[in-house]
Amino acid sequence: MSSATPPPHSVASAADLPPLWFIAPEGFFALPLAATAEERLEGASAFVRALYSRGDERTWDPAAPYYAGLAEMMGASGLSYAAMGLFSTAEDDSTSPSEVQRYEPADGVAQCAFTVGIIPTDQAAGDTDVVAQGILATLAGDPYNDAIWVDLPCGPAVSCITLREYTISREMAANAGNPTLLTGRIQTHVPFPTGPYTAVFTLYTASMDHWTEIYGLMSAVLQTLSFHDPAENQA
Q1: How far is Cα 11 from Cα 183, in angstroms, rounded to an integer?
Q2: pLDDT band at 97 (very low <50, low <70, confident <90, very high)
Q3: Potential cystine with 112: which of 65, 80, 85, 188 (Cβ 3.0-4.6 Å)?
């Protein structure tokens, strides 16, 4: 696995929304939430080639329109960023750290879905503590939520964990050997210090056997969140 740090993603779904920046870890494949159909299809073609890196045109050509349509639906719902996360759960071998490690899907894969939305909130610039306190009080009122205050490098935030168990069909249960499916969602609300908006980061997974690692991914992303262009900060 490469040790190079990927560049920060700049996120803003519309011209009237303020941007934010974060670094998504390796293994996140971002859907093309572009403005036009042509851009979405072009982005979807690159997306499927990265997601199905061992495939060919027989896999990529029919998959690209599907993901272009999915990107259109997610963009229309107000999301600024959406990605699929795929991570090998195979045990590490003796491969040299300088070499790229590749595993077969049959060795085990953990999956998650990751989205970012920017929503307007009633706040004055700089009142991030007040907004976060209000969000915490609202989320903590639901007994099924595990809501906590989080201090990030960019300011205060509220993180909420919700677990859900679903009953699956008899046909699927016969194949999976378990009639229920447990899923987990981590949702973190981060008020903008620059205006009346709140960023909502959501990570959803059914790979609960690897919950600790997936929770760590969300924590790592949030540590890189910035409301100011990192390039300008470095300059």
Answers
A1: 27
A2: very low
A3: 85
